[in-house]
Amino acid sequence: MRILIAEDDPVIAIGLSARLKALGHEPLGPAADGREAIELARKDPPDLYLFDVDMPHLDGLSAARELTEQGLRRPIVVITGVDDPDLIERSIATGVSAYLTKPIDDRALDAGIRLAASRHAEFRALEAEVTKAQQALEDRKLIEQAKGILISATGIPEPEAFRRIQRAARDRNLRLADVARRIVEQRSLLDGT
């Protein structure tokens, strides 16, 4: 996995790079602050972010939030030496997948990375399911609207209106929603709306 490191302490950054290599990952960077991390991520998007929270110019949580807003959302593992309960809440709100406190041993680092990658994959799968369900609902609304247009224009019963849409879809090798969209668009043209 390609992991972008953002850590302002050069000794810790070098140590993290070496540990990531030992765990079989490809470390990128390290960035010395959040601004540099954003630039590096834009140029060469990684698979995961490993960001220190407390950095100059832009902290790790703010950098992660900006990257997500720019469409560069990735699993986020944050590391910190600060003991602050509010920081955990901010991390959760930012979408952090794993939170590690310094000093970090190899087992904790490996577990945090694996957990973050797994949670991110689950989140992406859920997003895809939601998108698919929303599209199915929109398609269903369109089909219902098209059935209503056919019923009012021809006086046929609802089951027959649906069969006509199905038959048109089968004959033209189209999806039901595509046939319904055409019916609705043609009605709009006739009505002048």
Automatic annotation (TrEMBL):
SMART domains for this protein: ANTAR, REC
Annotated signal peptide: none
GO biological processes: regulation of DNA-templated transcription
Molecular function GO terms recorded: phosphorelay response regulator activity; RNA binding; transcription cis-regulatory region binding
Keywords on record: DNA-binding, Phosphoprotein
Keyword Zinc-finger listed: no
A GO term from the CC aspect: cytosol
InterPro entries xrefs: ANTAR, CheY-like_superfamily, Sig_transdc_resp-reg_antiterm, Sig_transdc_resp-reg_receiver, WalR-like, WH-like_DNA-bd_sf
Domain Response regulatory: 2-117
Domain called ANTAR: residue spans: 123-184
One family name in Pfam for this protein: Response_reg
Presence of keyword DNA-binding: yes
Coiled-coil positions: none
Modified-residue entries (4-aspartylphosphate), positions: 52
Name recorded for this polypeptide: Response regulator
